[in-house]
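Thread: sanity check for a docking pose with zinc ion

Original post by kr_44:
Hi all, I'm comparing my docking run against an independent structure prediction. Below are the sequence and the ligand SMILES. Could someone generate the full complex and paste the C-alpha cells? I mainly care about where the ligand ends up relative to the chain.
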Amino acid sequence: MEKFDLVVKGKFVVSFSDGVIENGAVGIKGNKIDRVFREGEFGYHADEIIGGDDLIVMPGLVNTHTHAAMIAFRGLADDLPLFEWLQNYIWPAEGKFVTEEFIRKTLPVAASEMISTGTTLFADMYFFQQDAAEVLRKIGMRAVLAEGIISFPTPTAESWEKQLQYNEEFIKNWLNDELIKPSIGPHAPYTTTPEILKKVRDVAEKYGVPIQIHVAETRREVQEVREKFGKTPVRYLDSIGFLNSSVVSAHSVWLDDEEIDIYVEKNVGIASCPQSNAKLASGVAPHRKYLEKGAKLALGTDGDASNNSLDMFQEMKFMALICKVNTLDPTSCPANEVLKSATLRGAISLGYSNLGDIKEGFLADLITLKINKPHSIPVFNPISHIVYAAKGTDVNDVVINGKPVYRNREFLTLDFHRSIREFNIIINKIKDEFKI
Ligand SMILES: [Zn+2]
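Reply from moderator J.T.:
Ran it for you. Here is the predicted complex with zinc ion included:
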C-alpha cells in the first residue's frame, strides 16, 4: 500500500484538471500533491489524515493584491471620498505608525485572517517587507512581497533610489526561499516616473521576479497620467516597454478595449479588487471583457483599510455579482471562472506554474470547507456552492506547502491570542492619535 505524509479527503474534491470528484482524496508527499484519488481507489497509509464526509477539499485561495499590515487601519475611516480618506487618515496614520515593529505586530493578525478564511498565498505591496517575510516564514504562509517604491518618502526610506535599493536587497535575501517569493513594487504610473519604472524593470529582469503595480484604479488617475505623459496609463506603460508577463496590474478598472488587447498581448496579470473599487466608488472593472479576450484575470481584496476584509469568499461572490449587474447578463462571470480567478489564474499571474489547482505534481496548498451548516446545505454543485453560498468562516483546515497550518479551526503555527494582545497595543495608540 502506498504511503503518504498527509492525505486530505472529503465529500467533494474540487479540481480544475480532474473535475469535481465525489468521495475523493488527495495524497501529499513532502510539499507536493502526489496522487488525486477517485472514489473506490482508496488504499494508502498516511502519517496524518485530514477530512470527512462533511467537507469540500479545494485549492487554497490566492489573494493577488493586498497591503496586509493595513489591517491596523480597518474601519479607521469609511464612507469618505478617496482623496480625503487618503490625505486625512491613511497617509498620516502610515507616516506616524508604520515601522518595523508595526509590521511585525500586524502581520500575524493579517495572516490569521487570511488563513482562517482559506487564503494560502497572497501578494503584498507595502513597507519593511524584510520584516514581513520573516514573520510570514515562521507562520508558514506563502506570499509574494514587494516593497512600495514611489516618488516621495515612505516609512522605509526617504528617496525612491533608497526604496529601490532596499527592494533589491530584499530580493537577494529571499530569492530561493520555498515560501516567500520576493517581488518589486512601483506604486503606480502617476506616483512614479519613467526613470523609476525603467530601473524597476531592470531589477525585475535581473532576478526574474514579478512586478506589482496599481494601474487605472480611478478616472482621476487616468486623467492625471494623460496630462503628465500624454497617454492613458496602459498605453504609457506599453510605450516605455514596461509591460510583460511578470507584471501584476492591480485594480485595472478604467481600460478601454485597445488597452485590454495590449494586456492580453503582453500577458499582463490583472489583480481585480471589486469590493475595494466599489467601496471607494472607483468604478467596476470590465471583468467579462477580460475573460472573453482571455486576459489573465485574477482576484484580490486590496488592504483592510479599503475593503474592510481579507475574506476571498466575499470577494468571489461580489465579483460574480457586480460583473453580472454591470453587463446586465446573468451568464457573465460564471462561478467556475470566478473560482479560477481566485486560485489557478492568481497563481499563474504571480509566476507559479505548479500552484492553484488540485493536481498531481502541484504544490500542496489546499483547504477544506465545512458543508454541514444551515447556510451550506444542500450542495448540488460544489463550485457554485463555493462562490455563492460558502463563507470564509466555513474553512475548517488549511494546508500550505504540504504542512497543516490550521486544523479544525485552530491555528497550528501562530499564537493567535498573543498576537492579538500585541496588536492591540498598536491599535490603542491609533485610537489616541485620532481621538476615537
Ligand atoms: Zn493597493
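Residues 65, 67, 214, 250, 302 surround zinc ion (CB under 6 Å). Hope that helps with the comparison, let us know if your pose agrees.
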